[in-house]
Amino acid sequence: MSRVGIVSWGAYIPKYRIRTEEVARIWGDDPIRIVDVYLVDEKSVEGFDEDAVTIAVEAARRAIRRAGIDPRRIGAVYAGTESKPYAVKPISSILVDALGLSNNVFAVDMEFACKAGSEGLVAAIGLVESGRVEYGMTVGTDTSQGEPGEHLEYSASSGGAALIVGKDGIVAELEAMYSFVSDTPDFWRREGSPYPMHGEGFTGEPAYFRHIVGAARGLMEKYGYKPSDFTYVVFHQPNGRFPVRAASMLNIPIEKVKPGIVVTHIGNTYNASALMGFAKVLDAARPGDKILLVPFGSGAGSNAFVFTVTDLITERQKAGVPTVEEMLRDKIYVDYAQYLKMRKMIKLFE
Amino acid sequence: MRHESVPIYWRNIPHYYRLVARRCKKCGAVYFPPVVRCRCGSRELENVELPHEGRLIEYTVLHQVGTDFLKQKPLIIGLVELSNGVRVTGQIVDAQPDKLTPGTKMEVVFRRVIVDGRHGLVMYGYKFRPVGGI
To answer: Does residue B21 lie in a domain region?
Structure first.
């Protein structure tokens, strides 16, 4: 296999935030208990004129800017989302024109709950590695759904993260990848339904932990890694507790997981969740660092990837693109009424 | 409710999405929105993508707005001088009007502009916002 890896990354977090205590105030929950259960202090909210498309474009533009490549050299673009503005009309084709890609590009939107964006990464890696395209891009983007007053509302948030895969100018070289998938009814949303349902007892053990741990452990056994090999470990982050517990189940020290945690400040950005954590780690990584990335999607499945950071990372970190840390700090708080308006959850004549 | 037609939107995608302007091959004048004929008389123009950053020249706040923007009041409309000197008018978002000042560093963002009801097209385009927030 030839060398392939991440050439660039870009992330986008909308500026608006709602505090957990504000949501709890509306629905009669004890905010202290809610924060203690989910470890989510506040979450990001898309602006009134933002959606999964605009968020994807912003994240992707930042990735291209950081890479410094002609966008027409990108031969494949994938959007992973569960917040499509259209039931039928792709985000990926809007990306083609918004980013100035060529028209000769493989493009599709992917759906596998929160894992679709990372499945786009797998597809891009395959096409680049085989030499069919020079660069491939995947974007995880969501304006995540959660029924008002239901527990998912405390975490469902908005954001996007984009990765460009290539052979030239690699900042994080792919060493291994592995997958773990099964039919698990932990979380679903039927056609036309505005909010997802989740099987209470299924979200943890049979879904998140089985697949995350299954993919990570399977990868380590197959390729001979041990927890001490990794500098950073990034898991999908539906709340602040799950990734820490997954690390404990894999005997991975919490210090390796903490740098990639974003859920505590912006909530669960679904398809951007693990990729946003990965972007945050890449913002700070040093040459030689090894990163274990394990996204998860309900339904359910996990992909595990191992990347080794190269010398080029230092240069790419200075590209003048906003870091995840900077975006976490750049925020405007909204109250619950503004939040409902921004998320278009108020019924309007159209 | 009348919206921009789908064909007009489609034809304008390059300049709505990426600020693609027209530059005169003879005298170098840049036009945004694009034109078919330069003021020098030449019809030889080429596409050029404008920079995505600039500074705010002036702005105004609209409280009486068109039907498509009723739910976004007040609307901030600004004149931004891009880093190559071209001036573009556009909506300013993610900003509080009383904190904007001429000279504020601005960046181009990609946003929903018009949404044609529940079943029609979502039309995207450029807007501006202050860099780093204010």
So the answer is: yes
CA distance B35 to A46: 35
Closest to B84 in 3D by CA, of B129, B30, B20:
B30
Q: Do A49 and B71 touch (CB under 8 A)?
A: no
pLDDT tens digits for range A48-101: 999 999 999 999 999 999 999 999 999 999 999 999 999 999 999 999 999 999
Rounded Cα distance between A135 and A75, Å, is 6
Residue B109 sits at the chain A interface (C-beta within 8 Å): yes
Indicate the number of domains in chain A.
1
Active site residue A151: no
Q: Name the pTM for this structure.
A: 0.97
What is the CATH number for A263? 3.40.47.10
Annotated active-site residue A198? The verdict is no
A65 falls within a domain: yes
Q: Distance between CA A275 and CA A201 in Å, rounded?
A: 26
What SS3 state is found at B43?
Answer: coil
Per-residue pLDDT band at B5 (split at 50, 70, 90): confident
Per the structure, the complete domain to which residue B91 belongs is given by 6-130
In a domain, A349, yes or no: no
The residue segments making up the domain with residue A220 are 1-344
User: What pLDDT score was predicted for residue B1?
Assistant: 42
Nearest by Cα to A165 from A329, A346, A334, A4 = A4
Is the ipTM reported for this complex over the cut 0.85?
Answer: yes
Q: Which of B9, B93, B111, B119 has the most A C-beta neighbours within 10 Å, making it the best mutation to test the interface with A?
A: B111
B36 touches chain A (CB under 8 A): no
Query: Is A341 in Cβ contact with B71 (below 8 Å)?
Result: yes
Say which DSSP state A290 is in. E
With CA atoms as reference, report the closest residue to B113 among B130, B102, B99, B127.
B127
The catalytically annotated residue of A22, A114, A129, A265 is: A114
| Assigned domain for A350 exists | no
- How many domains does chain B divide into? 1
Instruction: Determine, yes or no, domain membership for B1.
Output: no
**B18 min Cα distance to partner chain A (Å):** 6
